[in-house]
Design brief:
The complex is a heterodimer of chains A (about 375) and B (about 120). Chain A is of the alpha+beta class and about 375 residues long. In chain A, the strands form 5 sheets. In chain A, strands 1, 2, 11, 14 and 15 form a 5-stranded antiparallel β-sheet that branches. A 4-stranded antiparallel β-sheet of chain A has the order 3-10-5-7, with helices on one face. In chain A, strands 4-8 form a two-stranded antiparallel sheet. In chain A, α2 packs across α10. With about 120 residues, chain B is of the alpha+beta class. Helices cover about 40% and strands about 25% of the residues of chain B. Chain B has 3 helices and 4 strands. In chain B, a hairpin with a 7-residue loop joins β3 and β4. In chain B, α2 packs across α3. The chains are: A alpha+beta (about 375), B alpha+beta (about 120). The structure holds iron/sulfur cluster. The site of iron/sulfur cluster has 13 residues of chain A, from α8. Chain B: Keywords: DNA-directed RNA polymerase, Nucleus, Transcription. Chain B: It is found in: Nucleus. Chain B: Pfam families: RNA_pol_L_2.
């Protein structure tokens, strides 16, 4: 039933001036973590390249190296390490460099974190301060204590000559009070003289509120982590987007006035509520066609109800026969409804995971794709 | 058809941009330069399809196609036939340049749509 996809306008040569006039972008949603916009005058292969760059080639920081000093919980080390890797690190990746195998960890290419449960400062965490009797009293199941990503604390990375290990000085966690931080610093076993360099490096947070594991009293976790810059190409944890996709703008037409059972049937068929029934006239109308997912259910449902098809053919059927626009591709159609795609107009959706503002991501993708082309162009220049 | 691909190619590491810097571009042409097989290491469908599309919009191009010979090999092959009298490689350069121009145009329109209050 479907025609082959439209990949490009044929026969039109690329001319930057014409392109400049043809390309139109209109924003439809603008939030800190999500944007969507309508693009017309750009063909799918180019948008698809940008989509692929967004998913796989815009760099972010993510936890890559995990050192488990102590883990007496029921969760395996590697399982836990995998979960830690997926926690978004809310640092601007543009401030960091890639770290090669041969590179020493430095403040330019590595962010260090530490997770210690029970926390060094137990006062702030009443769940750890119960006496044994209180926890194990009764026959009820032993309560487990959830460990959230909130407990992952940024650490200052100290580079010492000839030594690539992490320092043991804990930086102030940005979401704890200063007295907490002080107590933590006192409690740690290492040097506490990083004050001068601490000032230069901003503490980094991870996304809060993510459940990492659950543990019982008496169990312990002590984990050091190093986050490095990477690409979604290698692992989805480095992907800056929860999703990035585009679709052709869907268009839904009704061929005439539909009433009664037929109208009800079609309205009820659509799971995303594209249709509604006009209160006063009792006729079917298209409420919001942009919601349409092209499932075709509104057309297919009438195949099971031939009696409706015969009894209620619209009076002014011919008038609505053809959609007006030329760039429409019919996907589903019967005598009452036609569901089309507008082939030269796309809606692009980008949802950020948190490392970038959603509205800068598209620009980043463009810049990366641009430099991809430029690099090859340079390589070919002398040929 | 060509032996350019396998051999010394190292598997993709965590740092693709470093590999891009030392990018391996391999060119094979016929005698009158109207036929070209371009092998690009470290590229995939992202560039491949966009470049193929742009080449269909270049005046000198008769035929164009691309392939990823094997999914585990990080390598893209572009095949271009140009019209007699023009060099296929020139069309590829033009297409790459036009892609950067398109990036600029789309970027500008995006800025207009989002950054003005
Ligand atoms: S094709 Fe669109 S309008 Fe019809 S039922 Fe599906 S989502 Fe609703």
């Amino acid at each position: 039933m479907r025609e082959p996809p439209v990949v490009a306008r044929d026969g039109s040569l690329f001319d930057p001036n014409k392109e400049q006039e043809r390309v139109r972008i209109r924003k439809t949603l603008h939030r800190i973590d999500e944007v969507s916009f309508e693009v017309s005058g750009v063909d799918a292969p180019f948008l698809n390249a940008l989509r692929r760059v967004l998913l796989a080639e815009v760099p972010t920081m993510a936890i890559e190296y995990v050192t488990v000093n102590e883990n007496s919980t029921v969760m395996n080390d590697e399982f836990l390490a995998h979960r830690l890797g997926l926690v978004p690190v809310l640092a601007d990746p543009r401030r960091f460099e890639f770290r090669r195998e041969s590179d020493e960890p430095s403040a330019q290419n590595t962010i260090c974190f530490r997770l210690r449960v029970p926390p060094v400062n137990r006062k702030a965490h009443p769940e750890w301060n119960l006496s044994d009797g209180a926890v194990f009293a009764g026959d009820d199941a032993v309560p487990s204590i959830p460990v959230y990503s909130d407990d992952i604390i940024w650490e200052q990375l100290q580079t010492r000559v000839g030594e690539s290990c992490l320092s043991s000085t804990e930086g102030a966690s940005p979401h704890r009070s200063s007295s907490d931080a002080q107590q933590q610093a006192e409690a740690t076993d290492g040097l506490a003289s990083a004050a001068d360099s601490t000032a230069a490096v901003e503490p980094v947070q991870v996304q809060r509120g993510i459940l990492l594991t659950k543990m019982l009293r008496g169990q312990r976790l002590d984990i050091r982590m190093e986050a490095v810059k990477g690409l979604g190409h290698d692992h989805a944890k480095w992907s800056p987007v929860a999703t990035a996709y585009y679709k052709m703008v869907p268009r839904v037409h009704l061929k005439g006035e539909l009433k009664g059972e037929l109208a009800e049937t079609i309205r009820g068929a659509c799971a995303v509520h594209v249709f509604d029934i006009e209160e006063s006239a009792g006729t079917l109308k298209v409420e919001d066609e942009s919601r349409c997912t092209l499932c075709g259910e509104c057309v297919r449902i009438l195949e099971d109800k031939p009696q409706l098809l015969d009894s209620e053919r619209p009076d002014n059927y011919s008038k609505f026969m053809q959609p007006m626009e030329t760039d429409l591709r019919k996907v589903y159609e019967n005598d009452f409804v036609s569901v089309c795609q507008q082939t030269d107009r796309f809606v692009f959706f980008i949802e950020s995971v948190g490392q970038y503002r959603a509205d800068v991501l598209f620009g980043e993708a463009l810049a990366i794709f641009h430099s991809k082309c430029t690099k090859i162009l340079e390589a070919l220049q002398n040929e | 058809m060509t032996s350019a691909a396998a051999g010394n190619h190292s598997p993709h590491s965590g740092d693709a941009s470093l590999e891009l810097d030392g990018k391996d571009v391999h060119i094979q042409e016929n005698a009158d330069r109207t036929e070209l097989v371009l092998t690009l290491r470290g590229e995939g469908h992202t560039l491949g399809n966009a470049l193929r599309y742009m080449l269909t919009r270049e005046p000198g191009v008769q035929q164009v196609g691309y392939t990823i010979p094997h999914p585990s090999e990080d390598c893209l092959k572009l095949y271009v036939v140009s019209k007699p009298g023009s060099r296929a490689l020139d069309s590829v350069k033009l297409a790459l340049f036009h892609l950067t121009q398109l990036c600029d145009i789309v970027g500008e329109k995006y800025e207009e749509a989002f950054m003005k209050t």
